[in-house]
Amino acid sequence: MLKKFYRILIMIVCLLFLLSCGEKKTESTSEKIKIKVAVIGNENHQSTIMANYFKEELEKLTENKFEIEIYPNGILGGEREAIEGVKLGTIQMTVVTMDGALPAWISDTQVMSIPYLFKTKEDAYKALDGVIYKYLSPKFEEQGFKYLGSGELGFRHFTNNVREVKTAQDMKGMSIRVQEAPVWFALIKSLGASAVPVAFNELYTALQQGMVDGEENPIASIYTAKFNEVQKYLTLDGHTYAAVSIVMNKDFYNELDENLKNSIDNAAKAAIPRQREKISNDEKEYLEKLKESGMIVTTPDLNSFSEATKDIYRLPEVQKLINPEFVDEVRKSLE
User: Fold this and answer.
1) pTM of the model
2) Given a cut of 80, is residue 251 above it in pLDDT?
3) What's the confidence (pLDDT) of residue 214?
4) Least crowded by CB within 10 Å, which of 41, 167, 271, 279?
């Protein structure tokens, strides 16, 4: 009788154990998948807008299967730290300048730094969504990233605190903050100025304290970062078109089932044109506000700038970083 009691007791214990395991499994499968997104700009920056639109689109497509946390203002570090975090998997995703710190891993992203490669935004969109995406995607994967596409920063322009710039010659002798990439050093050198790498989240202070005379960024970045508070002159030269890349940890992406992968891909595809449209619409308003704030805005002699920078593409150090055949491919795609 006692043996029978013990057998029944053991069966009950085993049953309770199996039930508890089943409950834990149900709980674990119902947990949301966390995506931590690092951006260096403030809440109104182009990269943050891109991240927010991606979040909105993904949550719509997956019925809130993901828990997406966006960390703006460089809370998780500058661009290099954000990219390193994504590569290591401590951060699942980031939205960073395409030709800023990224070239340390994928040098051909510096194709966006070739001066006057794109005449219009439409040209840039066509290349980014076509030949550039196709060429760069496998290179991102080789480095442990999933490349989801690129949104907009906008055409880049110079600002400074020294003088009004009407021709390329007026840039001589200035110290200009640049992104941490060799092509930018070559660009500034070709204009007779000094290139100084400074992290974007440290740039306002560097300008305020006079560590550098000026910088170059799209209008939206200049306005939302409030550089007009510490810069007097804005030169609308539009030397390059800047994009922000949406980058995810490859292992994180590959571990998802096909439906969730497709949702992530489609969320990016839906968010990118939304972000581009908003930034373009905001730009006109921001430019007027920069003028109202007291900035002296000048449209310079663009021929002098293109003439001064025309040989950058041919420099040996640049050709080592950017496959010249890739540059030719981009140009041909726009013909």
Assistant:
1) 0.80
2) yes
3) 98
4) 167
Question: What residue type is 254 in one-letter code?
Answer: N
The CATH topology of domain 33-321 is D-Maltodextrin-Binding Protein; domain 2 (3.40.190)
**Taking all residues of the chain, what is their mean pLDDT, rounded to a whole number?**
90
Looking at per-residue confidence, does 263 or 119 come out higher?
A: 263
Tokens found for residue 68 = 């997406």
- 1-60: per-residue pLDDT in tens? 544 444 544 444 444 444 444 433 333 346 899 999 999 988 989 999 999 999 999 999
